[in-house]
Design a protein that fits this description.
Rossmann fold; nine-stranded mixed sheet; binds S-adenosylmethionine; EC 2.1.1.233; protein C-terminal leucine carboxyl O-methyltransferase activity; Ppm1/Ppm2/Tcmp; S-adenosyl-L-methionine
């Protein structure tokens, strides 16, 4: 297989993610008025099985909560912040934030993905009045990079292959001298929702390192990062997951270093991040989703594979890390 074929299989996972989200919305697990324009009519399928819907619900609820806390913190500290979603696919998070309680907290929201995906997304946004109205007045929104992207006062959609050296991609696209899209002095949150697993560990570390170095040590902003990923793929259930994806020409080089939950924070700690934590979706469902929500979703559809649910959920985790540059840590200590 050529690398083009395997890349197109990787891109295909975005359709799966969008359909899973759409299914969870249709079944009442999640609310998202913005997902429909990203699901082409030709791709519409019957809703996903209950296990997938519950997994999508747990993951989305947990990540929404972490992002909400990040935005809330920025608001409390009287500063605006930036969010960068890497491998954003058809994600609708920007629209949900920009029309929600923390809309004024966003100084910039950047989405990166392969050009085929960003071109498709740019077209879907321009076609939808609802989506484009959130970006600003038509005069404020411009097609960028030959139709592969969009720029607006807050939202930026940019084509990039995250496996390429960041000095040639991220530096050029996000940190151009004189007019950087990302300010090096604002708190910044990186979102990697189901993307690093498709890249080599070296390429993932290079991306994280580039952001870490952009904000420190001379700079002064806190960097947060959330990774959602499958892991523990060496056990018997994990091997079945790997085989299923292999049958679709998708390989998972990024999962190799993470055989268990204890290894996950190492992704950040090995790069000098200040703190990092990980929780599996199984733990999140049991201990962090409000009981009232669990009660509500238990009435949505009949689930007769509850044991299998735990098995699936313990192979997915959310890991988050915080990097506080020495200058900020130092001044906090002095205060
Ligand atoms: N983050 C979105 C979500 O959670 O709904 C989409 C997840 S989808 C499973 C994975 C996305 O990562 C796809 O849109 C794919 O094109 C993108 N991706 C994978 N490898 C990439 C790379 N090397 N550079 C840029 N994007 C990549």
């Amino acid at each position: 297989l050529s690398s083009q074929d395997t890349d197109s299989s990787i891109r295909q996972t975005d359709t799966d993610a969008a359909l899973a989200r759409f299914s969870a919305v249709q079944k009442g697990y999640l609310q998202d008025p913005y997902i429909k324009p990203f699901v082409p009519r030709s791709h519409l399928q019957p809703p996903r099985p209950p296990l997938i819907n519950i997994g999508t619900f747990v993951r989305a609820t947990a990540i929404d909560d972490l992002v909400f806390q990040w935005l809330q913190n920025s608001t409390n500290q009287g500063t605006r912040c930036q969010i960068v979603s890497l491998g954003a696919g058809s994600d609708t998070r920007f629209w949900r934030i920009a029309t929600g309680a923390h809309k004024d907290a966003l100084a910039a929201y950047v989405e990166l993905d392969f050009p085929e995906i960003t071109t498709k997304k740019a077209m879907a946004i321009r076609k939808s009045k609802e989506l484009s109205a959130v970006l600003g007045s038509p005069a404020d929104v411009a097609v960028a990079h030959g139709g592969t992207g969009l720029t607006s006062p807050t939202y930026h959609l940019i084509a990039a292959d995250l496996r390429l050296p960041p000095a040639d991609t991220l530096a050029r696209l996000l940190a151009a001298e004189g007019s950087p899209i990302l300010s090096p002095t604002l708190p910044t949150l990186l979102l990697f929702e189901c993307v690093l697993v498709y890249m080599s560990p070296a390429a993932s570390s290079a991306v994280l390192q580039w952001f870490r170095d952009y904000f420190a040590p001379a700079r002064s902003a806190v960097l947060g990062s959330i990774v959602y990923e499958m892991f523990r793929l060496q056990d018997s259930f994990g091997r079945v997951m790997v085989e299923n994806l292999k049958a679709r020409q998708v390989s998972l080089p990024g999962a190799a270093p993470y055989p268990d939950a204890a290894s996950l924070p190492g992704r950040f700690l090995n790069l000098g991040f200040t703190a990092a934590h990980a929780l599996t979706l199984k733990e999140i469902r049991k201990s962090y989703i409000p009981p009232a929500e669990l009660e509500r979703i238990s009435h949505l559809e009949l689930v007769d594979e509850l044991e299998e649910l735990d098995l699936v959920l313990e192979h997915y985790a959310i890991t988050w890390g915080l990097f506080v540059p020495p200058s900020v840590a130092g001044s906090a200590a002095a205060d």
